[in-house]
Amino acid sequence: MRFLKPLGFVLALAVAGVAHAQSPIVIKFSHVVAPDTPKGRAADYFKKLAEEKTKGRVKVEVYPNSQLYKDKEELEALQLGSVQMLAPSLAKFGPLGVKEFEVFDVPYIFPNKEVLQAVQNGPVGQGLFKKLESKGITGLGYWDNGFKVLSANKPLLVPTDVKGQKMRIQSSKVLDAQMRALGAIPQVMAFSEVYQALQTGVVDGTENPPSNMYTQKMHEVQKYATDTYHGYLGYAVIVNKKFWDELPADVRKELEAAMKESTRYANAIAQQDNDAALAAIEKSGKTQVTHLTEAQRKVWRDALKPVQKDVEGRVGADLIKAINAEAANLGVK
């Protein structure tokens, strides 16, 4: 009998150990947009693939619409390990101290998606990911959300129409310079607060890809929009570096495969979703959308071209030069 109690105790520990070993690795994936946006759909797709490929060894919990954290909070939460994965917009890394990411905010620097993807997948994009490692962050992939339209409660037909308008922006010195170049008054604000700010007149207008504008119902509180396509909005899917490095190698390999497939998916649906969203905004009759001719768009490009020079000290002249060289290599003047 003296031996039975210790034996029972050991067996209990063994059972508990097996149960613990079988517990899935939980990845909390937080983001600030709606589930039916390109990023939201890609996050859900990654969850599906990750759980399938790891045969249940990993459980991905997706928290959309700022359910866990707002814009300014989520990166700190990732560094602390409160969440394991995020997909913040590229502008978010400036306040973190990696200001070079704000090169993606430079207006009209990417003439088309081909140039953009060459930059993200090449030495520039991968070099930027390397800069995150000292912050305890590992970059996994770039997800597209397309080019932005401008909206307000007055028509924005030419650049001077933006003068004096209070325009919501992300926390980016480049976006600040962009709006000031147009004579606007930039207002930094969390994405989750924009609808109410537009509704109450705290800000006059904003910039967004159509999918964000539509899914957040901003078109219900904006009378006009113009397809300037002046700037790009993309995301970097990132993880807590310590968490990632400590994963079993076979699990990490399957998650990398899931991320690669999810990235292809995200980038494939972005344009389709934005086209559908812009059509839905027009169909609603609540926002009048102006479609610019190429000649009209050139006026906007010319008005914003000085921003490249203005922000060289912020993002690096060499970085801007490298992106322009990539465009030239692909035959874009």
What do you see in this structure?
The structure is a single chain. This protein has 333 residues and is an alpha/beta fold. Helix content is 48%, strand content 17%. Strand 1, helix 2 (38-53) and strand 2 form a beta-alpha-beta unit. The longest helix has 36 residues, at 249-284. The N and C termini lie far apart (87 Å). 42% of the residues are buried. One of its GO terms (biological process) is C4-dicarboxylate transport. This is TRAP transporter substrate-binding protein.
List keywords for this structure.
333 residues, alpha/beta, 6-stranded mixed beta sheet, 14 helices, 11 strands, globular, TRAP_DctP, signal, DctP_fam, transport, TRAP transporter substrate-binding protein
Under the CATH scheme, which architecture would be assigned?
3-Layer(aba) Sandwich
Query: In what range is the share of β-strand residues?
Result: 15-25%
Q: Name the average pLDDT.
A: 92
Strand order of the largest sheet: 7-6-8-5-9-11
Number of helices: 14
Largest sheet, described in full?
Answer: 6 strands, mixed
Q: What would you call the shape?
A: globular
**Count of folded domains:** 1
Helix proportion? 40-55%
Rg, Å, rounded: 22 Å
Query: What is the CATH T-level topology?
Result: D-Maltodextrin-Binding Protein, domain 2
Number of strands: 11
Reading the helices and strands in chain order gives: HEHEHEHHEEEHEHEHEEHHEHHHH
Q: What is the CATH level 1 assignment?
A: Alpha Beta
- Cα(first) to Cα(last) distance is 87 Å
This entry's quaternary arrangement is single chain
Show unreliable segments. Answer: 10-20
